[in-house]
Structure formats: structure tokens, C-alpha cells
Amino acid sequence: MLTVLKPHAEKALQPVGRLLRNVNPNAITLFGLITPVLFFVFLVRGWYWWALFAIVLNALDMLDGLVARMSNKVSAFGGLLDSTIDRVADFAIIAAFGFAGLVSWRIILPLLMLTYLISYIRSRTELAAKGNLVASVGIMERTERFIAIFAGLLLFAIFPRVHIMGQNIMSCVFVLLIILSFITVLQRFHFAYKKL
To answer: Which burial class, exposed, middle or buried, applies to 155 when counting CB atoms under 10 A from its CB (0-12, 13-18, 19+)?
Structure first.
């Protein structure tokens, strides 16, 4: 849904991209592992405000693709590396809530599975279409998920004792993410069924 805003975000990041145009885009991709790892550490230690700052910095993970395009260094391997690092980042950010004891693993594990399914279905659909389709459809893509996690953690940091039906704010946000992610999986399957 919010992928339509990506061109605007990339335009805003162009000055940074120009500064980094002599840096190997794959190095920038690997450097992008730092923010999810920091998020994980901060969250587990209970440093919620620092974790919020780290998740905002994680939004800069689009810099590698921007630099690759600006320096004519776009490569199939770079795309593979970027997608792989994104999956590691997804795991670190979602699983951090389980390791921190903020959300039950019974809630985290279904969300992790659905998160990976959303990415996998897109990848397989685009592969089956031999590059003739962009299967970025659905209401809960990666950007929306990070925004929801950020908003949930912000509310949790401000209101840590608030519970809804016996669950803290973060658990409620994760349950909502599971529902929306499941809908997204169905939307992507429907898209693939119609287009392939």
C-alpha cells in the first residue's frame, strides 16, 4: 500500500545517495544489518526509546538500491542480498519482542511465518511471471508492518501498564498484524491466481 510513497522517500534521500555513490551498494546493504541488531539489543534491554530510534533508522535500508541505480551498479546478486538481509532484519525486529518478554511466542511465531510467506509469495509469483509482473500487492507489506510496530512500541513505552482483554499493547498490535498479514497472503495468492 505505502509502496506508492517510495519514490518520494527516495527523492528525499537523493542528496545522501549522491554522497555515497562511490560506495559499493552491497556494502551499504550489509551495513543495513546494524539497525535491526541495535533494535534487538535495545528492546531486550528495555531501552524502548533507543529501539524506536533504531527502527526509524532502519527506514534507510532503501539507500542501497538508490545508490546502485545512481551509480549504475544494479545487479541480480545485489537484489538477492538485499532481500536476504531484509528477511534477517524482519526476524530480528519481530523476534526481539519474544526475547524481551513483551509478546508471547505463541503470537510471534505465526506472525513470523506470515511475514515470510508474504515475501515468498511475491518472489515466487514474480519468478513464475519471468519478470513481467510486480506482485507487491496487499494491505500489510513491509513498510506498513514497521509503521505498526513503531506505533505499537511508542504507545507501549508511554502506557506500559495498559492492557486490553488481558494483553499489553504490543501483543494487541501483533495480533492485528497477524490478521492483516493473513489477509495479505490471501490477496497475493488471488493476484497470482489471476495473473499467472
So the answer is: middle
Distances from the Cα of 196 to the Cα of 103, 136, 160, angstroms: 38, 15, 47
Total structural domains within the chain = 1
The answer to whether the CB of 142 falls within 8 A of the CB of 93 is: no
CATH number at residue 151: 1.20.120.1760
pLDDT bin (cut points 50, 70, 90) of residue 130 is: confident
Residue 76 DSSP SS3: helix
104-119 average pLDDT score: 97
Residue range(s) defining the domain that contains residue 161: 2-195
Query: Choosing from 61, 64, 82, 86, which is the catalytic residue?
Result: 86
Partner residues linked to 167 by β-bridges: 164
What burial class does residue 37 get, using C-beta atoms within 10 Å of its C-beta: 0-12 exposed, 13-18 middle, 19+ buried? middle
Per-residue pLDDT band at 24 (split at 50, 70, 90):
confident
The yes-or-no answer on residue 86 being catalytic is: yes
Tell whether the torsion through CA atoms of 54, 185, 180 and 94 is positive or negative: negative
**Contact status, residue 50 vs residue 88, Cβ threshold 8 Å:** no
Task: Kindly report the average pLDDT of the chain as a whole number.
Answer: 89
C-alpha cell at 159: 502506557
Taking the CA atoms of residue 140, residue 189, residue 63 and residue 50 in that order, the dihedral angle to the nearest 10 degrees is 30
Confidence (pTM): 0.90
